[in-house]
Specification:
Dienelactn_hydro, 6 helices, hydrolase, about 15% strand, Rossmann fold, six-stranded parallel beta sheet, disordered C terminus, Dienelactone hydrolase family protein, EC 3.1.-.-, about 40% helix, AB_hydrolase_fold, alpha/beta
Length: about 200
């Protein structure tokens, strides 16, 4: 069992995040899904970015940080698209995280990342939000800092392919992502506490 903090996309906290949390809870994990937009959601990316502008990034990060208070240092950080940016900002403060799960976008590795940290990235290919150079940079940083990185690309899928409410949903790619994420989290839960997984 692991604790997981799942940060939502620019569309707000929606069924895709809640369903992911339900899957992980059924697998025996404990999950929090902070609402970083104060209850508001968006139907399109344009609406989502306007919502983000109204909310402000500082407020988003403050809400995410408050959601982590009281959670174990080892809590897994997970993000959906914009949520991976939240992970990027909070990770330097949470370097004891048992692992990091990145859905639909990469994150930046902090200079202080713990060697051996397990990281998994799932993204469509091609995806304008996940250009090849960003993935290459993540791979280089992982090698340099001895991070155990796995990258899974899903050819032909849309950016938010895991979201069943959107036209770009790809059921096969989504199911494969959730299965791989489940195995990733199970492996973290099996790792002895206090050791690099």
């Amino acid at each position: 069992m692991v604790h997981i903090a799942l940060f939502h996309s620019v569309l707000g906290l929606r069924p895709v995040e809640r369903l992911a949390a339900e899957r992980w809870v059924r697998a025996g994990h404990r999950v929090v899904t902070p609402d970083l937009f104060g209850g508001e959601t968006a139907a399109t990316l344009d609406q989502g970015f306007r919502l983000l502008d109204r909310t402000g990034w500082a407020t988003v990060i403050d809400r995410a940080r408050r959601a982590l208070r009281g959670l174990p240092d080892e809590t897994v950080l997970a993000g959906v698209s914009m949520g991976t940016g939240v992970v990027t900002d909070l990770w330097p403060e949470r370097t004891a995280a048992a692992g990091v799960l990145l859905l639909h976008a990469p994150a930046e590795l902090p200079a202080s990342v713990r060697p051996g940290t397990r990281v998994q990235l799932h993204a469509a290919e091609p995806d304008a939000f996940v250009p090849p150079d960003s993935v290459a940079a993540l791979r280089r940083a992982a090698r340099e800092r001895e991070v155990a990185l796995e990258v899974f690309r899903y050819p032909g899928a849309g950016h938010f392919y895991t979201d069943a409410q959107l036209d770009e949903h790809d059921p096969a790619a989504a199911e494969l992502t959730w299965r791989r994420a489940r195995d990733f989290l199970a492996g973290l839960g099996a790792a002895p506490r206090g050791t690099a997984p």
